[in-house]
């Protein structure tokens, strides 16, 4: 899986292991001694046999925080008609009754669209009437939960303006819903066979280096029997938590309080403090004296959506997740819109739209149709329009209203003569994509949403 490297502060960096390979040294086979007519026996070799040289162990590449959204860990994927906000993994917590959970959090304004979509992908097999029953259950309770055919749990709640995990969303008004939009949480039970790699994800993103200041009072090594990891794209933050069972927890707390400079407070009956913290990273320690456990949460701020994703490049998607739009407003308006068939068919049929409102006083707009590898290109000025069809390898074709008008307007805009304008709008598009995103048009079209 192609991993996307997140930005992590230096004090929390885990050493990245480079992969290496080696070959065992093959044993040289000793030639058999063939007896001759004058030899009655072979010479016996009493030397010790040569041991094979062991292969060096392959060193595994460390998991990054953003891998929690990748296909190796995320069973749901990222292509949703909703906005993915966060992902988390929890292991070993008593409150989870021994279950180890992966969760994906997202928000949506189209409440019926979200419920109907998730009912379909969860394999409920409902008709329209069945989906409307789910909608009415949500309308009545402000809450809905169902289990999919694959065992996933889908929970839908009203968005809360005081919940800072996500950007508050308003309902789109369909089906009579106003006010709060919805928050969707998908839950997956991690099987025991996969638990090792999820635990390794936590290991690779938990650093004890910043805990050196308390190592005299608490053994900061842990077995990761109870741990969790959470990454939030909306906040650009993450936290990795590990639980330590401590028989003398009150003594540990008193020693830390007496010898390490930090602020203390009480929360839900437990004493808490933060150490080694800056504006961007630190550790929060929660002391549960009744249970004899200390939870150490390593938190980080300042990582972004995956590099190269459309979201990271500044594209905003409609609520249905069908079309993403990037807009530049200065020094003049330019926009790019992208939609792909796997996200659902766009009503206008195109896959890319590029618009530049000022090409030497003309407005140029292009529509790309992937199934035909074709661009329709239109130019406008003073309420006069002209249009032609462009193929990357082809000749001037399908001119509107006529060839002479097309030549006159496009040559005036691009400073060309004859039919040499033919490639110019596409070259303008290629140059803009290269300068703004550092990639080709094909790479931009293939980029993931998030």
Bin the strand percentage.
Answer: 25-35%
How many extended strands?
Answer: 19
Distance between the termini: 15 Å
Helix count equals 7
**Average pLDDT:** 82
Q: Which strand order does the major sheet show?
A: 3-4-5-2-1-6-7-11-10-9-8
Weakly predicted, low-confidence segments: 1-52
N-to-C series of helices and strands: EEHHEEEHEEHEEEEEEEEEEEEHHH
Q: Indicate the overall shape.
A: elongated
> What structural category do the secondary elements indicate?
alpha+beta
Rg, Å, rounded: 31 Å
Largest sheet: 11 strands, antiparallel
Fraction of residues in H or I helices: 10-25%
How would you portray this structure in words?
- The protein is an alpha+beta fold.
- Helix content is 17%, strand content 28%.
- The protein has helices at residues 111-121, 128-141, 195-204, 249-259, 403-414, 424-437, 441-446; strands at 83-91, 101-108, 143-147, 153-158, 182-189, 227-232, 237-245, 264-267, 270-275, 281-288, 293-301, 316-317, 324-328, 334-338, 352-359, 362-369, 374-381, 384-390, 397-400.
- It has an eleven-stranded antiparallel beta sheet. Strands 12-13-14-15-16-17-18-19 form an eight-stranded antiparallel beta sheet, with helices on one face.
- Strand 3 (143-147) and strand 4 form a beta hairpin.
- The longest helix has 14 residues, at 128-141.
- It starts with 82 loop residues before the first strand and ends with a helix.
- Residues 1-52 have low confidence and may be disordered.
